[in-house]
Amino acid sequence: MTDVEIHGECDPRFLRVKEAFAENFASRGELGACVAVTIDGKSVVDLWSGWADKAHTRPWTRDTIANVFSTTKGLTALCALRLVDRGALDLDAPVSRYWPEFARAGKESVLVRWLLSHRAGLPAIRAPLPPEAMFDWTRMTEALAAEEPWWTPGTRHAYHAITFGWLVGETIRRASGMTMGAILREEIAGPLGADAHVGLDEREDVRVAEMRNAPPAKPGEVTLVSRIMADPTSMAGRAFANPPTLSMPGTVNTRAFRAAELPAVNGHTNARALAKIYGAVGSLLSPESLARASHEESNGDDEVLGVPTRYSHGFMLANDGMRIGPRAFGHVGAGGSAAFADPDRRIGFGYVMNKMAAHLTMDPRAQTLADAVYASLG
User: pTM score, two decimals?
Assistant: First the structure.
């Protein structure tokens, strides 16, 4: 798309963001997308453009939503930290305090904070699981409760790409009596008027953008898919492809996927909602939990992603692959989506798209937009 019409509103101070958004369509193959920014909780950028389907029959509109894959993890972390704030969840307690069945196979001393910071040693399940297991909450949580850690918990980290959702989600459920999707709906998205869902009602399907898969890796190019295919039986391979559901074409566009509560990977939302939520973290979290969101818990080479990563309590932090402020925190999703808060610059940022790319860290489309935000602030 070289002659794209950009819809929405943009404060004149942030015209660089609008220009970068248009450039994503002109030069980076964008199909449909939206970007939003808040400063001090006030919207300064709310833009959208392109198509909500591969056939170019449905324009992307103001109320289009899309699956944001692991950008969902940041919303899950917010739910967990809200429980910490009201004393329902203790980060330094063993997981088994809330989930007694978890105290098996060397996991008796696994701490809640290690689930959030990818240090629990449970990025994958060894025994092969069928595709339908992904949508069976009890089956997946029982499998993780029985699983032996891949390393001594707490000693190192690796991305718990899919298991994060069941591990943190079940701990949230046991501690509060509510699912993560219900907490998001009742305590965060609902009060804020933010269009964010984990467990999407069928009535909303008409607004959901169709996801388009990332192109195949070029010869010699290292991507998420190439890491999985290099050895599907490895820890990294199993982390993303056991159950193999997400590697099956079209899964993310099905009703079963949208309806499930998968707190690691299937949030459905748009940039406006993400920017609103991240822009409101100061009211959603106590000062102590706001500090926890920025506090480094894990740093170094990630044995699942194969690149250096930094994590706090459920959030990604700035590094060479994610250029944001030094105390900013958020999450990116497979394919390109991204959201973050920067308490120092009072930024709430969201970017959502439907044409996936294969980058292992922050997608260049999202990074270009984030760079434009910081450049606009000077």
Answer: 0.96
